[in-house]
Specification:
Layout: E1 5-7, H1 16-25, E2 33-37, E3 40-42, H2 54-67, E4 89-91, H3 97-105, E5 108-110, E6 112-113, E7 119-120, H4 138-154, H5 165-185, E8 197-200, E9 216-222, E10 231-238, E11 241-246
Parallel strand pairs: 1-2, 2-5
Antiparallel strand pairs: 3-4, 6-7, 8-9, 9-10, 10-11
């Protein structure tokens, strides 16, 4: 939960055509995972077996989050080289420009040469790619997971609080302050008519005389930068844990 799966390309994918054939035969369409191509080899053993790069790529993402923020693109961080692998590693083979574009269109992140002889991981797409216009990019997917995990950790108190308007109001105010701070940092698509986020926790979703173990519910929506549409989640707070389900509300006022 709130995790991202990295899929290494198979050993028999020795060129772009083979990789795209593998994607067609075993299509993984999910915003919760991403893959890359090609594998990497060490400069001192150029004829050695290509190695998977999943561990190194996750390390890049962690370094990037420490230096900047989860909603900022790796490829925009030129000064810190957040997207660059150690210069001892090189691609198992060079990609042509057309190869890189074909990989991106099919939900695969190409590893491309960068400055100073370092290999770059742009970290652009998830395996869902354009089939999910709200969570198709890796940046958007990671931001959504960040928001939900922080809400889950920060609102556990509400599952043990007395049910009623005071708790619902306090919960809505807490989550609103968190999302407003993210918006001020540039996480959401903000305009003159939109705050870029939306929270609801009230009597329309909850009742004071709830049965024992019945969750407190809130709705959270936000419109991430460069996403075509906003996303919305129904969050259920229970003493034994919190769940967040992506949802679409029919007939509800969900203007962000």
């Amino acid at each position: 939960r709130n995790a991202t799966l990295v899929i290494d390309p198979p050993d028999d994918c020795i060129d772009t055509a083979a990789l795209l054939g593998w994607r067609r035969r075993r299509p993984v369409v999910s915003a919760h995972c991403f893959t890359y191509f090609p594998k990497i080899i060490h400069r001192e053993t150029p004829n050695g077996k290509p190695q998977p790069a999943a561990g190194a790529l996750m390390g890049l993402l962690c370094r990037h989050d420490v230096r900047r923020h989860v909603f900022m693109s790796l490829v925009d961080d030129r000064e810190q080289n957040s997207a660059a692998l150690h210069r001892d590693w090189q691609p198992a083979f060079e990609l042509l420009p057309d190869d890189a574009l074909a990989l991106l269109r099919n939900g695969v992140n190409p590893l491309i040469p960068g400055s100073q002889g370092r290999l770059l991981f742009p970290g652009v797409v998830t395996s869902a790619n354009t089939q999910d216009r709200a969570l198709g990019s890796l940046v958007q997917q990671r931001l959504a997971k960040f928001v939900l995990s922080r809400i889950e950790r920060g609102t556990r108190w509400a599952a043990f609080a007395e049910r009623g308007p005071e708790t619902w109001h306090a919960l809505q105010e807490q989550v609103s302050r968190f999302l407003e701070a993210l918006a001020e940092q540039g996480a959401f698509k903000v305009s003159a008519v939109s705050s870029g986020w939306w929270v609801q926790c009230d009597a329309a979703l909850n009742d004071e005389a709830g049965e024992a173990g019945r969750p407190i519910r809130l709705l959270v929506g936000f419109h991430m930068r460069q996403a075509a549409y906003p996303v919305m989640y129904s969050v259920a707070l229970r003493p034994d844990g919190t769940t967040a389900t992506r949802t679409v509300l029919q007939g509800a006022d969900t203007t962000l």
